[in-house]
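Quick question, first post here. What does this chain look like in 3D?
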Amino acid sequence: MDKEQAKRLLPLINNREAWAALKEYLKDRKNLEQQVLAVATSELALFRSQGKLSSLVHLEQLRVNAHAILEPKKETHEE
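> Answer (accepted):
Ran it through. Tokens below.
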């Protein structure tokens, strides 16, 4: 994600109510996908489920990642 993408996401990630609703939805989807993963019988189903879980985790981290891009920590150099 670049700075422009992060800036466009600010209305969503800074809206506490909307972000809480999205996080709850992502949590529910993750739980469902973990159940699918637990009973996957083919390698293809396993890989698909793992990919979906990875995407859901990435979306859960969207707020943290966007803020990290827009507000990078300043490094202190001690001599």
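The first helix runs from residue 3 to 13.
The CA atoms of residues 44 and 58 lie 21 Å apart.
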